[in-house]
Design a protein that fits this description.
single chain; 244 residues; mainly beta; Umud Fragment, subunit A; eight-stranded antiparallel beta sheet; four-stranded antiparallel beta sheet; 36% strand
Amino acid sequence: MFNKQFFIENFKTLIYALIIALIIRSLIIQPFYIPSSSMEPNLLVGDRLFVTKYSYGYSKHSFPFSPPIFKNRFFFSEPERGDVIVFKTPADNRTDYIKRLLGLPGDKIQFIDSNLYINSNEIFKSRVSKSDTIYCGDSKIDVSTFEEKLPNGKIYKTVYLKNFTFKNSDVFTVPDEHYFFLGDNRDCSKDSRFLTSVGYVHKDNIVGKAQFIFFSSDRSIGSIFTFWRWNKSIRFDRFFKNII
């Protein structure tokens, strides 16, 4: 016999659970999946990470489907140079990108002889390896790995092709309320250097700060359902790894 009260109570519980999940996802923390190699060697394809929504305040892009319920950003907190950030690409205000913040409003960014300059000051980088292999899309490329140190003391790894394909650029002047992002895989990243597809990112397009990896798997070896390959496909050493 149909129990109407039982159905109503379970339906209400489901609605409450969805509302709580929506609040957590919109205001506190959201999981993201890394689909490309543009942030290697620090983020790998198959990494799943948590992004905190409250780190830089909130905009319409903090919520699912970016509803136009309000303009601008509130409770805004200025991001720091070197942060790894998820943002909506300005090309469509819909696609999520994850890159490293290098340029703040008013900064001048330029590449000269494959070296990165911020406000006419060369960013110090030291080579840590001459013979690493990483992915660029579905292809493997030979790279040199460096540690870069930003003016605020932030240190992270970045890679360049051995022949440094991106050698020189014009000066990128970051507009007010905008930011300049680069991928750590410098010769295999669509980022703010490409003005027609990404370019400068408005502060309202920021989604949140990448904090740590909670799961990682290599799908080229096997999926989560091929449990007999878990020992090879799941990267256990990346679980709960902080994102630098």
